[in-house]
Structure formats: C-alpha cells, structure tokens
Amino acid sequence: MPPSALSPTADVSLAQFAADARQYLTRTPRQMASRYFYDALGSRLFDAICELPWYRVTRAETTLLARHGKEILRQAGAPARIVELGSGSGAKLAILAERRGRHAGPIQLHLIDISPAALEIAARALDALPNVEVVTHHATYESGLAAVTDVQADAHDERANDRATNTTLALFLGSNIGNFDRAAGDGLLSKLRAALAPGDGLLIGTDLVKPEAELLMAYDDPLGVTAAFNLNLFARMNRELGANFALDQLKHVAVWNGEDARVEMHIESLAEQHIVIPAAGLEFVLARGERIWTENSHKYTPLAVDRMLARSGFSVRQRWTDVEAGFALTLAVTA
Ligand code: AVJ
Asked: What is the distance in A from the centroid of ligand 1 to the CA of 88?
C-alpha cells in the first residue's frame, strides 16, 4: 500500500502517537505512555518477557486459569460472552474458553487490544476453538469500553430470544491494571462497571507485593529482554516519528518505589543529546543522567484489590492465589 493510501485509523493513531509523545516528553520529569511499547516487535518482546524465569506473572496466571477455569466460568454464571481488555496473544482467553463444557452453547469472545499484530495472532488462535465467535476491537481500553457498551446493548436485545444465560464476563488480566495509578485505575474500573449489566462479572489479575529483589529481577532481567522492551519504545519513536534518540546512549533502569507500591521503568541518557522529533514538532535537550519515565507496574495486597474493586462498584465473589509466585486472580460481580 502506498503511504497515501494509509487507512484513516493508521493515520489517526500516528497523529495520536505524535501528540502523546509531545505531551508526555514535555512533562517534568519527562515521561512516555507505556501503551506505545506494543508495536509488532514490542508485542513479541513482551511475549518473550513472559517466558523469562524471573517474570512469573503470566505463568502464575495461566496455571490458575487452567486449574480453576471451570469453576471461574461457573461462578461467573456461564457467560454468553467474554470481553478481554488487553488480550495480547489471546493464550489465556483460549485456556478459559477451552474449559467450557463439551455441550456449552455458543460464546462470543471480544478482544480489545492496542496492537494490530497481537489481535491478528489472537484471533487466529481463538477462531479454531469450537462454538466461538471472535470479535476484535483495535482500541485503547477507554475506547474499547465503548465497544463493551454496544455489546451490552446487543445482549439486551437478545434477551428476548431466551438464551440459557446472558451474562458478560470482563477479563482484565496480567496485572494490566498495574499500569494505572490509583485514581486512573479507579476511573477505568468504574467505567467498566458502568458498561456492564447487573450480575455481570470481572476477573482481574493482580501481581502482589513481594520482596524487592524479586521485583527488580522481574523488571531488570539478566538476559536484557526487559531492557530491549523498554528501549524499543525509543526505536519506535525514531522509526515512526522521525526522532533521533541515540539508542546506544540510553540505559534501562528499573526501581522499586515502596511508598507507591510500584516498580517503575525509566530510560536514562548516558550523554547529553539534542533530541528532535519532527512528527511531534518537538525539540529538547536530554541531559546526561536525565531519565524518561516509561512505565509504572503497581503491586497489590489482597486487601488493596478488595478496596479498589469496592471503590468502583464491584463486590468480590472469590479469589484464587498463587502464594509462591505472589499473584492473585479475583472474580468480582457488579455490586
Ligand atoms: C503487561 C503491563 C502487566 O507491568 O508487568 C513487563 C508489562 N513491563 N515487564 C507489567 C511489563 C515490563 C507488564 N504489563
């Protein structure tokens, strides 16, 4: 496709990327939004992170889903549709969908993700499952929620055709909630709550607070995969926005912020750099030793999860915990 034939969505996302780069990089301290990690390479680097022995989130959650998936679906009222915010490779959703009984009715799987590459991979894997209808939404969580609202409206219309069950289960897995600070997380969960109907469920995965050394190994692994994941954001800005970050002068840094219960990722410049980002209409000097803050990964206690859910209008029904890995899956229903 010639550049002039770029689809409107691709154009809009590039403009949004440029606008966000400008907005975040001019904050004090400088920042960048973590959702831009997930281009095609970034999505694959994240999948590689999930295979690292030091990053246990994905394995712990996958094991819990495989072991308790049947019970989770039963407790969620045998949902007629599952909506996943940030479905990634779709592997966890596949495990859950496979736990349905052999004689289960048709189920709709709605995938909301920022990465077209991930959506394509996930849709292909899930389409192969029996009796499922896959719907992909290339969207941020926020605009994806609008899709959930539409889905709910359709569900309401369908109520007449008396299906056995008509509940929706929302999935927010992988401790994706951890990218949000308290206010933003509450805001997102409250919007999700408003998009759901009475009796609908939310299954949320949260990484738990654990010893600092373990947390730092998970975000600064000895193989440098997490460093590559973090640096790729700058390679992406160079490629897509025409930026001139000297990647060999950037260093990955992970720190534990105990007061706010989060691991933070930053990129530190090893030299003074004159940064020009033409697509963002931005020029600035990145000082030697200056950091750009790229991600927050909040960690929780079970009590903090309960309180967060209560604040946004959910009541906890059941929790499954991997104590050893320090990870919890919590099923809540609309209160
Ligand atoms: C996918 C956002 C949950 O914060 O743990 C992994 C992303 N960053 N290693 C996380 C990530 C560094 C991950 N989330």
From this structure: 12
